[in-house]
Amino acid sequence: MRQGRAYISLVLTPVQWLVDLPAELADEVSDVVVDRGLLMKENARLKAEALLLEQKGQQLDSLAEENSRLRSLLNGRIRIPNEVTLVELIGVNPDPFQHQVVVNRGSEDGLFLGQPVLDSGGIMGQIVEMSHYTSRVMLITDARHAIPVELNRTGFRAIALGKGEPDELELQHVSDTIDIQEGDLLVTSGLAGRFPRGYPVAVVTEVTHDPGLSFTKVRAKPSARLDKSRHLLLVDPLADMTEQTDADAQADTVIVESVE
Amino acid sequence: MSQRQQGGGLIIFATFLCGIVLSQMPLPEFIGWARPEWVAMILIYWVIALPQSVGVGSGFVAGLVLDVIRGSVLGANALALTIVAYIAMTLYRRMRVFPLWQQSLLVMVLVGIHQLILHWIQMFVGYTGDSLLFLLPAAVSALCWPPIFIFLRRIRRTFYVS
């Protein structure tokens, strides 16, 4: 069934492109027709931003080094950057009940079902359907989506459910005594093995303690720009994991040696 | 004669293709709910105009294409459009003599049925949503019906589709 669907969707790929054509053209036009002053201003802003990021990057290098040293001291896992593919959005599901987008790469480009999708802000969703040259991404706000997260500040783990509303997630089963505040950052916990660990997911916007309910109601706003980003990143958590198991194996051998 | 009919088939196919592309066009959030059901309306028009060549089968194929491109349950749109085509088939003699506004009312009912079936099937699979806004396209489609009817009739007459 899934295979048949992939083939029909292969036949319909030109239709997808056709739908995207006006947006693409508008992009091209606004790329060509642009004010020089505006460009210079943007250039200056980007340079300043690059400087800031470089400065952060310098710190990051030394911190990463230190982190990996400490981890190796603890015989822990070494985390490496994930493999990344850049894709472009070519369609949005018109059904308001479904939060899905279509991107311009498919199984021919080495994508796989369940692959995590990010933008510059954080996690956007995962691939749920694939054809040869296009694939469908379910966003984290879809009513059928759930993502394991942890609170960056305290490490408390929870599951963030999509509500079918744009720009809103809900944390499930947060007991009343948990330390959680507005403005807390939720990052992926990496449990369940689908999303890599440590990417930002959402920011807590509302914490309601209702004595009549057994759990605290926690709402959060996704940090990815779900309805605006046009260029998305696909990461490959499996590459990360194989690397980790290698590291594990090494760690194990080290332990064995030390025992011997 | 046969050549002309083949050309007519192409024209009908082209209108359906336009409908499918229109139904995929991205819209801003607040009018996302009010998207007219282009494909259903085009299907209704061709069933009224040429019930001998466009019917339940065309509805099924168009629905299948729509399912794949929209990512809904395979067969949901197909079933909904099949039923719409069937009802339109039984009504076409009456619809032809109705004035436009009365046709619009019938289109509202037909698209409403289409939306209900679609929503019902999607609910089975767990696309939740407790909003009744999914019926809004029926009203919007009724409003869009007169211009679309006139436009498609113009096309049919210019290209002698019969």
From TrEMBL, chain B:
Keywords attached to this entry: Cell inner membrane, Cell membrane, Cell shape, Membrane, Transmembrane, Transmembrane helix
Gene Ontology cellular component list: plasma membrane
TM region(s), chain numbering: 6-27, 39-66, 72-92, 131-152
Listed Pfam families: MreD
Superkingdom of the organism of origin: Bacteria
GO biological process, one term: regulation of cell shape
Localization in the cell: Cell inner membrane; Cell membrane
Membrane topology type: Multi-pass membrane protein
General function of this protein: Involved in formation of the rod shape of the cell. May also contribute to regulation of formation of penicillin-binding proteins.
Family: Belongs to the MreD family.
NCBIfam families in the record: shape_MreD (TIGR03426)
Protein name as it appears in the record: Rod shape-determining protein MreD
Gene source species: Pontibacterium sinense
Name of the encoding gene: mreD
